[in-house]
Amino acid sequence: MHFELNDEELAFRDSVREFVRTKLPESISRKIFEGQDVSRDDMVTWQKVLAAQGWGGVGWPKQFGGPGWSAMQMHIFDEESALAGAPRLNPFGLRMVAPVIMAFGTAQQQQRYLPKIASGEEWWCQGYSEPGSGSDLASLKTRAVRDGDSYVVSGQKTWNTLGQFADWIFCLVRTDPQAKLQEGISFLLISMKTPGVTLRPIKLLDGSVEVNDVFFDQVRVPIENRIGDENRGWTYAKFLLGHERTNIAGVGIAKRELRRLRRIAGEERKNGKPLIDDPLFAARVAQIEADLMALELTTLRTISAEKNKRAPGPEASVLKVRGTEIQQAISELTMLAVGPYALPWRREALEAGYQVDPNAEVGPPYAATAASRYFNWRKLSIFGGTNEIQKNIISKMMVGL
Amino acid sequence: MDFEFTDEQRQLREALERFLIKEYSFDRYRAIKASPQGWDKQVWHQLAELGVLGVNVPSEQGGLGFGPLETLAIMDVCGPSMLLEPLTSSAVIATTLLNGFVADSAVSELLRHLAAGEQIAVLSHHDADARSELQWVSASARRAGNGYVLNGHKAVALHANLADTLLISARTAGQPGDARGISLFRVPHDAAGVTLIGYPTMGGQLAAEVVLKDVQVPGTHRLGEEGKVLPAIESALDVGLAALCAESVGVMQALFKATVEYLRTRQQFGQPIGRFQALQHRVADMLIHLEQARSMSYLAAMRCISTDLPERRRALSAAKIIVGQAGRFIGQQAVQLHGGMGMTEELNVSHLFKRLTASEFLFGDTDSHLQKLAALTRST
Prior knowledge:
- The complex is a heterodimer.
- By secondary structure, chain A is α+β, with helices and mostly antiparallel strands.
- Chain A has helices at residues 7-23, 26-34, 40-52, 71-83, 91-104, 107-118, 233-244, 251-267, 279-305, 315-338, 367-376, 387-398; strands at residues 124-127, 143-147, 150-161, 168-174, 185-191, 197-202, 211-222, 226-227, 269-270, 273-274.
- Chain A is built from 12 helices and 10 strands.
- A 4-stranded mixed beta sheet of chain A has the order 1-4-5-8. In chain A, strands 2-3-7-6 form a 4-stranded antiparallel beta sheet, with no helix packed on it.
- The longest helix of chain A has 27 residues, at 279-305.
- Helix content of chain B is 50%, strand content 16%.
- In chain B, strand 2 and strand 3 (147-158) form a beta hairpin.
- Classes of the chains: A alpha+beta, B alpha+beta.
- Chains A and B meet through helix 9, helix 10 and helix 12 of A and helix 7, helix 8, helix 9 and helix 11 of B.
């Protein structure tokens, strides 16, 4: 038993660190460190920088043009990127649909879609949830009816993240309404430019617009856009959900945000003294620090045990629950650290390039984003399978109840 | 990075586990606890034969010359058995402490006896008023001729009433709270002026008040330099803290297993109660706590002898926090999910719960370690 990275991993970490340090535009990392929004362009810019390095297919095996990293290398990459202030990569192409296409797609589909995901040319989004089908995903109703060499798709998807930027959406659709719920579902790739696809933004409690309703009205989708067999889509969907949780512990992000919290608590004053010297507040920070150390080690144990397996097992559910709880706790404490200046509600402060007017300053710059982040991050325990669903998985798959 | 035990560690662990399953059943534990001695010398000898008592003893003194990782490997399999014998006190803490003074031929000889199971040594350090501050030592050691005269009162010294040799810290200079001025002495349990007021603790293990009244100790029985042994005491207790974390994980594992088994078999409303989601989620929460605690027990074992002191302190405080909180949650929920049965003496659940609760008080409680970690955080 030893916790140290081996020489090869250390060299890899150093190369990633050096790469991110030199290649990540400061204009992007500054937004991350200030808690501001990053734009589609920022995310695509970063994806293209990675592609130029040959790392566009982050986490992919070499045969599909990826760098062929181990799970440990992938973890190191995620952590180094997060700590250096890199934006998150759009996961819907890279980490969700790509593994499905690799595992179940035809050679033609692999050649058509994968390179453009890695290069950042095409943006993907997800069509899973529906208004009546959230945690009970298999009850989805969006219909796909065969008509010659096409499917005709009608229905509604929701909680579609960043679909406003998307070129493609991968969808679960019902192809056999007579079959058992899980057995009548197919997995389709649909161009967002197809006639009949419309999108309605959903404004969230923090004022952001990152999710949408997507409506399908008699949308014609060629049969060659189906992944795998008709009515086997649920198998592919479950495979994808396993991958969705791979990096969901978010250890790197939590470390970065905890550092930021400490910095803020060092600058903030409570009754004239640094907030970080307040014993109760300091104990709350210490609690998160201990929790995060435990999560990091549990993550490393999981990666280490998975060396030879491709998709993570139910252990990923433990990481999802703890990871999201910790990130939420940090966002909550950051908001509380800011004190009364958490109250002013200025959406513009989250936007890139926002400059404080020196004649009309309202609190420190980090204060403006603290409450929005807290509200926005309540989503963490809801998306990717709610934490309650994760606990169902844990008790069923790991405990056997 | 590797989280597996080596073959050697696994063999030691498995041999001990087989022994405990055979020789230290719950019934046996109860019988030993109810006996007048409150522990079993026979078991102690058998542990010596298995090599368990020599894990931390150098091979020159007849031990295995291992360290914290092997201690981790044996401690978590001890957890479910709730050993009443002074494994952590003697074979981990006192042994580690004595290793630092092995050049002293009497210490070398003592270590040989410890590894063989012929003697027991226990560190007696904590003041009633100290809580987690190790430098809060009020017992005094006054020079007299070639020796010292010890006076003072050590509180709730775990297993002190089992010891042949007590390792007693006392001030040769300074005030309670000063890191300097603390010296260490080895004192026979029956030395004139030593009174041991023994009692069982909530977790079943024995402990004692150690009252020192004009105890005369020859100068040759001082261990290490006068006034400078606090770092050695701290190091030994750090190794003990890591061992305790590992043992607690073993206790939690046993509680978790018992609870899952109960939920599978206990029928209410015509079905096993494990079918109810409210209880399933509680079990999921128990498992999450258990795995976080297990991770931290590994970290504690890994860092407890680190020479990077801030990193060592940070890891050990974080481990004690996470293990303490996990222990409280798992213990309370195991009782809750067993319903009325969890409240009884007849199931091991209540005993395991009490053992976990007792462990939270040892080597600094959760709040003390939260404060320590917070102080470390502030200074970085």
